[in-house]
Amino acid sequence: MIDFHAYEAAAKLQSAEMKPFYDWLKTGRADVLERLSVARPETVGILQGEAQRLEKILDFIDSARAVVEKK
Fold first, then answer.
1. 22 — phi, psi (to 5°)?
2. In this predicted model, what pLDDT tens digit does every residue of 25-37 receive, in sequence order?
3. CB within 8 A of 9, min separation 6: which ones?
4. DSSP-assigned letters across all residues of the chain
5. What local confidence, expressed as pLDDT, does residue 3 receive?
6. What is the pTM of this model?
């Protein structure tokens, strides 16, 4: 289970001053997905893993505020 402090920190990533970092993560995921469309078979698994990792981080950030507000 993830510590509540991690949710608080992730919720802060939604603030205006942290928007460039959040946008960087989103752009990174979009870049990985684009590279997947032309990837060699031996690198597909690596890129899929990277895309999934970035998606998990973005989902965590997106859900953090709701978790913090419930407490």
1. -60, -45
2. 999 999 999 999 9
3. 64
4. ---HHHHHHHHHTTSGGGHHHHHHHHHHHHHHHHHHTT--HHHHHHHHHHHHHHHHHHHHHHHHHHHHHH-
5. 86
6. 0.86
